[in-house]
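WARN retry 2 of 3 for item q-0093 after timeout on previous attempt; input resubmitted unchanged.
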Amino acid sequence: MFPRLYTRLALTISVLLRGGRALAPRADIPPLSPEELAEAQSFFRRPKFFVYGHARSGTTLLMRLLDAHPDVFCTRQAHFFTRPPYLHALVSDPDIAFWLRRGSFRWNRGRDLSPVVLRAAADFILERDAARTGAKIVGDKSPNSINDGEAIDLTHRIYPDAKIVYIVRDGRDAVLSHRFQAFIDAPQHLGRADLRIRAEFQRDPESFRPTGKSLFTEKSIRDYARGWVRNVETTTERGRALYGDHFHALRFEDLLADPAGETAKTWAFLGADPAFPGADAAVGSVAGTNRDAQWQETKAGEIADEIPKGQQGSWEEFFSERDQRAFVEIAGETLEAWHYNV
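OK item q-0093 returned
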C-alpha cells in the first residue's frame, strides 16, 4: 500500500511542477526471478540478514551483539523496507519505470529491470562497509513499527534469500520505553495533553509510580497496545510464511538473561561460528554498556535520571491500574502467547 501511495503522490507533484501529460503510475514492482537472484548473488557474495522488531524492543542491543562477531557486520537504520519512501522509491518515478522496462532497452532482456536495480543498490550499500572489515555476513537493523508485517513482504520481493531476525519485548515495557523516548527525543511532536503529562512527570516523577498518575492518555495506551499486537502478530505471521526456517525470533528478556547463549544461537542461525576465540568477552563488553542510556542523560538528564533503562518489568513501576487493564484487554492473548505474565 505505502509504495503505491508514495508513487501516486510523487506523480501528482511532478504534474503540478512540470505540467503536461504524465506517464501512468507504474504497476507493482515484480520480484526477482531465480535467474536474477543467482546473478545478484554472484556479484555480491555476502549473505544478507535484516533485524526487525517493534520500536524499543532491544533491536539496537541485538545489533551490537551480532556485530561483535568478526565475521558479521551489522549496522543500523537503512530502512530499505521499513519506513517510507522505502528502497522502491528509487524506481517509482513513472519516467524511470518506463525506461527500465522499455521494449527497445535490450539490456533489460525484455523484463522490468527494477528489481535488479533495487537489489544491486541495496547490496552495494550493505557490502561496502562490510568489505572494509573483512566480515563475511552483513545485515541491517531497522525497527518495523511503521509498517509491521508489510516490511516482510517488501523485503521478500528483493531479498527472498535473506535471513530475518525478529526480536520481541513485553509490549508493556516496549511502549513504556517508547513513551519515555518521546519525552526525551521528540517533545516537539507531542500534543497538548502529552506535554502536560511530560511536564508533570518532570516536576514530580514519584506521583507516577504504582497506582498513581498515568503516563498515557487512555487513547494513547490503547493505540500503543494495538500497535504492538499488530507488529508482533503480522511480522511473525508473514515472516514464518515467507521465510520458514530463515526466520528467527527471540525475546529481549531472554537476551538480557543469557546474552552469550542467545547471541550464540543467533550467530549460528546466520551461519557464523558461535565459538570463535574471545566470544564471551566480546558479548560481555557489549552487554555491559547501554549507549542509549548515555544518550538520554546527555539529551535530557532531568527526565532520564528517573527512567529505568534496558530492564525487564519496568512497566510494573509505572503502569497505572487503568493502563494495565487497557493493555491486557487488547494485547492479553499476544502477551500470553509469548509467555509474558498478564
